[in-house]
Amino acid sequence: MKKFLILIPLLIFADVNPFNAGNLNSSTPYGLTTDEKAILLNKKNINKLNNNIQNIQNDIAKIKLKLSNYNEIINDKLSAFPTVIDEIDSAMNDIVTLKKEYNQTQSQINNLKIEIDNLKTKINSMENNLTSIKESIEEIVKIQNQNFQTLKQSIFEIVKRLNKQKPLSLKEAFAIARKDFFNGNLNESKKYFSYTLSKNYMPATSAFYLGEIAYKEKHYKEALAYYKKSVDLYSKKTSFTSRLLYHSAKAFLYLNNKKAAKLSFEKLISDYPKSKYATLAKKDLAKLK
What is this structure's pTM? Predict the structure, then answer.
């Protein structure tokens, strides 16, 4: 028993160096004082902190590497950024230009709509005027036809008397009629022009001169009937058409038919703008407005 007890301390201190007590650098320090224990604890904490710092530094290095990569990507993006900005500016300018063009086009469309509305109004007005003019012309034609029917009997009587006289060629009769007209022998001229008209010799001209004779004698309805007959027989322009239109207009005025007079004046000015009768018509037309 005593031998066993003696062996216990030997076993306990078999791996302990009695001279290493208080050694803080030992992997398993022992025999430490309170201050040494505190120092040892601080050393352990410092070692942990150093490890943490190292880990943090490693993480920072990784982050720096990533940042470097990101910087390269960002720099690539930024290098293209001025081009993108230019493209955006160009696109914005295009948008501004398109807006201006759109506004101008819209304005033009609005103006065209107004013009179309105005044209529609004018067309409606013109259609109404044309209807009124057509009615007036139809009335004028009706009156003139009635007048000429009345004149036919007078012409018949004149021709009947001339037939009893010495026979004349139509050419001679026409020449005598013109000569008498320009010499102021209107009654004689009327006889011979009535004769040539009835025989269909120079009918449009004969009817015109008969109209002129009636106009000079202030038989305005009769004059209009002969003027219409002349135009019906030969509707193309002649040397006397401008005079015929002017005297037709004046005859209508004397008969107090201002609407028909206005139409005749306007027709004369339109078809014979350089004639002396157009100049006279413009003055007469101005008085009607």
Answer: 0.49
